[in-house]
Design goal:
The chain has 188 residues and is α+β, with helices and mostly antiparallel strands. 15% of the residues lie in helices and 37% in strands. It is built from three helices and eight strands. The protein has helices at 59-68, 132-145, 170-174; strands spanning 5-12, 17-21, 24-33, 36-39, 44-47, 51-58, 74-88, 91-105. The strands form two sheets. Strands 1-3-6-8-7 form a five-stranded mixed β-barrel. A hairpin with a 4-residue loop joins strand 4 and strand 5. 10% of the residues are buried.
Length: 188
Amino acid sequence: MNDTVVTLVGNAATGVDYRETPTGGVARFRFAVTPRRWDRRNSAWTDGSTSFYTVCAWRSLGANLTASVNVGDPLVVHGRLRVRDETLDGQRRTFVDIDAVSIGHDLTWGTSAFKRVARANTALTERPVDMSAAASAANAATAGNGSGSGSDAGPRSVGEPVHTQPWLSEQDESAAPVGAAGVPTGPL
């Protein structure tokens, strides 16, 4: 698939409008990008002309966006660029949309506090309780090349922590509830 993927830095120009659709929730807002250039003649920064984009975010990204973004917030938007032409009132108009893959606050201008949300449908993110099938598949994959996978020196003991979240320290992970196979049983 040939998509044009862009990353834009700007500000939320409107509030986020969230709607439920048959294929999942969608959030939309207008995004303003204003380039700044150094004017050597006046020795000052000057603003260029502002470009406006309609940003669409689907499913959980859209729901999280609705709870996190306000008008004027500095943002970084990463997604697929779509350009469409329409005729409205006899005039041909061009619209530029971004199907967002990722959106976050631009921390150049302030701080932000991240808060993980609990998912309603955990079946997509939970690990199966019976890890024997997954373990045997992993052993078959490492046995095929004879050398294992990097630093993995063999099967883990029951009490040994499994590092599923590399951003957690070993102390934080070992405090999580552990199941029979040494796999954390709590939410990821």
